[in-house]
Automatic annotation (TrEMBL):
Cellular location(s): Cytoplasm
Superkingdom, natural source: Bacteria
Stated name of the protein: L-threonylcarbamoyladenylate synthase
EC main group: transferase
Sequence segments annotated as region (Disordered): 226-266
Swiss-Prot/TrEMBL catalytic activity: L-threonine + hydrogencarbonate + ATP = L-threonylcarbamoyladenylate + diphosphate + H2O
Family: Belongs to the SUA5 family.
Organism: Agromyces marinus
Amino acid sequence: MTLIHDCSVESDLLAGMRLARRAIGSGELVVIPTDTVYGVAADAFSPAAVQRLLDAKGRERTSPPPVLVPGIPTLDALASEVPDAVRALVAEFWPGGLTVILRAQPSLQWDLGETRGTVALRMPDQRIALELLSETGPLAVSSANLSGMPSATTAQDAADMLGDRVAVYLDGGAAGTAYDAIGERPGDTSSTIVDATGLGPDGTGALRIVRAGVISRERIAAVVGEEALTPEGAPEAAPGDSGVAPEASAPAADDASAERTDPGAP
C-alpha cells in the first residue's frame, strides 16, 4: 500500500522529509507539492534516477524534465548565460510559476535526456519543496502523472497514477492554491514556460512563451516589454501534459531548444 505523508502533521512532516532525502540520495523518486501542480522528483545529477522518472511517467528521452532550484543564485551555476531579460523575470516571478529555458553549463555532469544543450529551470513558491531543495540541491521534476493524463493537484491523485514507482509521497495539501487566492491562474495550474535560448549575447532576438500557465503573457510583457516577446499571433504550446513535444505546435526559438520543454512541467 502506498504511504502518503501528511505534511500538515509535524511528526509526519519530519518523517516524510527524512525519508524523501534518503530516497533522493538513493536514486529513487519522491512526489512533492509545488505551488502549481504536484511533481515527481529525482536527483538531477543521477542519470539512472532521471531515467527512472521518465520510465515512471511513460515519457521518452525527447521530453527531458525541468529542474527545480532552491534559489536565484543557482541560475548562474546551471546556465551558461543568463540574459538581462531573464534576470528581470526571475526577480519578479521567483519563487513562483515561471519556468525559463536557458543554455546549460557545458561542464554539468548530468543527463536529463535529449536536451540539446539546454535546461529548463524554476524556483517553486512552496515551503516543503524549497526545504527539500535546500537539502538535496537541484531536482529533476516533472508533473506527477502518467503521460497523457491530467496533472495531479493532490498527493492522492499522484499516488493513484504512479503507485509504487515512487518511494515517498509528501502531501502538502491542494496544489496551486496560492494562485487561486490572488487571482493569477488563467485557467491552468501549470507554470508558464518561457524559452530564452533565442536571445543573443548582444540582446538581439526574442523570448518565446512555449506554454501558457499561471503567469499571463501580459504580466511577462509588463516586466520585459511586449517587444521582447515573439509576436502574440505566433503559436504557443497548449497547457497541460499533452504528451506531445512542444515543437509540434510551437517551434522553439532555434533548433537547440527544440524538444527541450516537458509539457508536464510543474
